[in-house]
Amino acid sequence: MTWSQRLTELNIVLPKVVAPLAAYVPAVQTGNLVYTAGQLPLLGGELTVQGKVSEGAEGVVRPDEATEAARVCALNALAAVNSLVGIDSVKRIVKVVGFVASAPGFTGQPQVINGASNVLGEIFGEAGAHARSAVGVAELPLGAPVEIELIVEV
Known about the structure:
The chain is α+β, with helices and mostly antiparallel strands. It is built from three helices and seven strands. The chain has one domain (about 5-15, about 25-154): CATH 3.30.1330.40. The strands form two sheets. It has a five-stranded mixed beta sheet with strand order 1-2-7-5-6, covered by helices on one side. The two termini are about 15 Å apart.
């Protein structure tokens, strides 16, 4: 089964590649690796959710919302990979780097980034098992709660 077929089986449609917000490209290949730019939870040019992640506070992004946003980010990163080399050329996901705009005291960054890791596992199975970093930061572009970048072997 190809990865394209697996996406169809899972009823996952990769979004259009998000246009760069500054002076960069969505993905580059060097040798057998593709590096994606950081991807935000953008759908149709709009953030799916905005703000810092916290538990229990009003006016912030809940961890479950941020986890879903991380999933969107991962799919945007895969769209960038697909546009450069085609999704079926992926051999494995090597690394996921996740940034979480965190309110003071929030320490659940790994659980938030699971939104990206889990969807990659659903799609790629063992080839989706990856090294990972989950980092809390003060701010992200456009007020996004999450940003994800991938390193993919092709």
